[in-house]
Amino acid sequence: MSINLALGKAREAARGAAWLFKGVMGENAYQAYLDHQTRTHVAEAPMTEREFWRDKTDRQDANPEGRCC
Amino acid sequence: MSHSNGSHQHEGVLVSDPDLPPTAVDPQVAEEEERRWTPTKIAIWAGIAMLGGFSWTMLALVRGETVNAIWFVFAAVCTYLIAYRFYSKLIERKLLKPDDRRATPAEYKADGKDYAATDRRVLYGHHFAAIAGAGPLVGPVLAAQMGYLPGTLWIIIGVVLAGAVQDYLVMFFSMRRGGRSLGQMAREELGVVGGTAALIATLAIMIIIVAILALVVVNALGESPWGVFSVSMTIPIALFMGVYLRYLRPGKVTEVSVIGFALLLLAIVGGGWISETAWGVELFTLDRITIAWGIIIYGFIAAVLPVWLLLAPRDYLSTFMKIGTIVMLAVAIVITRPEISTPAVTEYASTGAGPVVPGSLFPFLFVTIACGALSGFHALIASGTTPKMIEKERQTRFIGYGGMLMESFVAIMALVAALSIDRGIYFAMNSSAAATGGTVEGAVAFVNGLGLAGVNLTAETLNQLATNVGEESVVSRTGGAPTLAVGIAQIMQSLVGGPGMMAFWYHFAIMFEALFILTAVDAGTRVARFMLQDSIGNFVPRFRDTSWRTGAWICTAVMVAGWGAILIMGVTDPLGGINTLFPLFGIANQLLAAIALAVCMAICAKKGVVKYLWIPALPLAFASVVTISASFLKIFSPVPNIGYWAQHNAFKGALAAGEESFGTARTVAAMEAVVRNTFIQGTLSIIFVVLSIIVITTAIIATIKAVRQDGGTNTEETPVAARLYAPAGFFATPAEKELEAQWAALEPDKRPVRTGH
């Protein structure tokens, strides 16, 4: 029992770490956009995943972010 | 709804939706929670304080033969925890007074893209990845010549009272202004003169910072076929990743980063094979001038190519490496606990005759270590991207103040890694080629001639080290990066792989630093290009259109020419390059910090919080005194080693007297180069200090005016009531958990948008 509990906890921690890492890498940007779309502009069809990532880098082209020394 | 959280004037506006749970923890409950000192809590904080105090005693007072690296880690971490818990809390309660009932720009301007409420822990990582680069890795290494104590004290005390304060204030004020940039805030708060001076200073500072970072890479890669091969392989790897993300599997960021990382390791290993073949050595052994031109051409192309092709994938790779390597290094230092035999304070702290960077402890320690203690560049990051993603106002303390503490910790680890290598080797690597002649014999003679107690360098030691790290020579590998790479390699090989793996770890560390720097060069050029276009746009409106190709190319070329000229000057400098230019880098960075803090002080005064004005005024005063006196020494000092103009006149006089060699310049051409270089360096020093004095003066005037009038114009955006909730710190407190549970119990269609869930 306690082993199962410990395993469950470990699995949860691993999942949390993976979620955090992906978040920091910026992988969940499309999901965030979709969440936003479903809450607000319901009428308008959201961009597809491919369109979204294109749009994202195109916006970076027009709006550069600094990287520190 | 009657609780006041410091913004009484908005009581009427901030009425929350009765259908939703509260958007902030009741201040009274939060206050009680904070004030409740349970025995466990007391014991924990007493333990932290005692461990910190004991570690500081071990570092500062106990004089043994050696000191263990673990005390640096404990002293730093305990001080950070105490400062975070008590000092940043004081700033929050008394100065900034964040109000969680107010929506952040990420909420009221939400577009799902730039303005997107992001989980605080994720955003902490984002912000850290954006602020931490090669700076905190290089400065502490160079400052190690003054001993371990001055650098350690400045990194830790500096971050607590200055660096983290600056980041926190700028982030908070930018967030309250819809994510406005530092330049925009300067113009609003200080008027046209102060704002324009701040803009020009920022632009000039960016040029010098990019140039000196590029110089660090050039010095690390010069005459190193292994390094040149593996670092240049990052370009095709990034291009591949870019294409992969654009056409093959869009959005698979982690996946492509893992692939990229594997290819990167392959490039490092492959560099080792190539450096053992005759053709590889011939093809990839490049002198520093060629590499400098390579970086200049790369910088231009990278800044005009579309972001998706090179910059974005390189950024993913850089973030991946940054987080991975820093965690790895921290674990390795804690496990191996290297002994450090450098004295606490060396004679160079007072004489200023150190061969690595000239100048005595005051003020030059404080400009040699900028990033890690106080970095003005952060103000550009903390205003802009991050504030547009903050979910709740109270999270700025964790992300702004806490994020900078983490960078400071990186600087401490870099210092430990640099200190753990033999002192003789340290000076052989970091003294300029002008001093060592670039040869093993010259280095041995020079270092042993310094008269350092306990240092007895042999040619064998240097040759052995060069063989171990897979380089032709380690003599005069200035710039900090190679020294740090040797330190990291020593620590890592004792953990993984043994001496046989040392070359791999060395080149891994070089790659790690080069990757950050090239990303910073490329992003810095882009940002500077946009700033230039915007400024020229005031006179020639067409330049405002950033999608206009010709304008973009012209402005990019101007920026690249600016930093490229300084880079070439540094590479060809007969006096050694990095040791004459590095002070300029630190001064520029700290002056930017002074500008940022000056803007913050004016804002605080306009808010009417006179009693706590010392919070930004204290670091501002210190940064101003340090940088202005360092600039004045660089301009007026009669000692040629320190004063640019003294050096300029000395060489000019020698040329006029018809001498054919002078000091370390052995030819007339070299003497002329020194005259030219010192002229440029001296002029830059004057420009920086004049601009900064203008900005600081206008800020002081604005502050005094506001104090006299009991406040000033409020430039914050109109408050909007929040419709979402999230805890403030990394861990949620019991009251925060309870509120989170109330929000979680809400019907899904009523729940507001949050990311990462």
Task: Show the helix and strand layout.
The complex is a heterodimer of chains A (69) and B (757).
Chain A: H1 2-25, H2 29-39, H3 49-62
Chain B: H1 27-35, H2 39-60, E1 67-68, H3 70-96, H4 105-108, H5 120-131, H6 135-143, H7 148-176, H8 182-221, H9 225-248, H10 253-274, H11 278-284, H12 288-304, H13 311-336, E2 339-340, H14 348-351, H15 361-368, H16 378-382, H17 396-419, H18 423-430, H19 433-436, H20 440-448, H21 459-469, H22 481-495, H23 502-536, H24 549-572, H25 578-607, H26 614-636, H27 644-656, H28 668-708, H29 734-744
Antiparallel strand pairs in B: 1-2
Helix pairs in contact in B: 2-3, 3-7, 3-17, 5-17, 6-17, 7-17, 7-25, 7-26, 8-12, 8-23, 8-24, 8-25, 8-28, 9-10, 9-11, 9-13, 9-23, 10-13, 10-23, 12-23, 12-24, 13-17, 13-22, 13-23, 15-25, 15-26, 17-22, 18-20, 22-23, 23-24, 25-26, 25-28, 26-28, 27-28
Give an overview in words.
The complex is a heterodimer of chains A (69) and B (757). In chain A, 71% of the residues lie in helices and 0% in strands. Chain A is flat, with a radius of gyration of 18 Å. Chain A has helices at 2-25, 29-39, 49-62. Chain A has 69 residues and is mainly α. The N and C termini of chain A lie far apart (51 Å). The relative contact order of chain A is 0.07. Chain A has one domain (2-62). Helix content of chain B is 68%, strand content 1%. Chain B contains 29 helices and 2 strands. Chain B is globular. Residues 1-8 of chain B have low confidence and may be disordered. Chain B has 757 residues and is mainly alpha-helical. The two termini of chain B are 29 Å apart. Chain B has helices at residues 27-35, 39-60, 70-96, 105-108, 120-131, 135-143, 148-176, 182-221, 225-248, 253-274, 278-284, 288-304, 311-336, 348-351, 361-368, 378-382, 396-419, 423-430, 433-436, 440-448, 459-469, 481-495, 502-536, 549-572, 578-607, 614-636, 644-656, 668-708, 734-744; strands spanning 67-68, 339-340. Chain B has a two-stranded antiparallel ribbon with strand order 1-2. At the A-B interface, helix 1, helix 2 and helix 3 of A face helix 5, helix 10, helix 13, helix 16 and helix 23 of B.
